Amino acid sequence: MSVDTDTVRRIAKLARLAISGEALEPMAKELNVILQWAEQLNEVDTSAVDPMTSAVQTKLKLRQDVVSDGHIQEAVLQNAPLAEHGFFVVPKIVE
Amino acid sequence: MSVQEIYDARHGEKGAYIAGATGDWELIIGMEVHAQISSKAKLFSGSPADYGGEPNEHVSLVDAAMPGMLPVINEFCVAQAVRTGLGLKAQINLRSVFDRKNYFYPDLPQGYQISQFTFPIVGRGEVRVDLPNGDVRIVRIERLHLEQDAGKSLHDQHPSMSYVDLNRSGVALMEIVSQPDIRTAEEATLYLEKLRTILRYLGTCDGNMQEGSMRADINVSVRKPGGPLGTRCEIKNVNSMRFIRQAIEYEARRQIEIIEEGGAVRQETRLYDQVKGETRSMRSKEESHDYRYFPDPDLLPLELTQNWVDEIASSLPELPDAKKTRFMSEYGLSAYDAGILVAERETAQFFEQVAKGRDAKIAANWVITNLYGALNEAGLSIENSPVTAASLGRLLDLLADQTLSSRLAKDVFEIMFATGGDPEAIVAERGLKQVTDTGAIDAAIDAVMAANPDKAAEVKAGKDKLLGWFVGQVMKSTGGKANPQMLNDALRQKFGL
Question: Is the reported ipTM for this assembly greater than 0.85?
Answer without folding.
Answer: yes
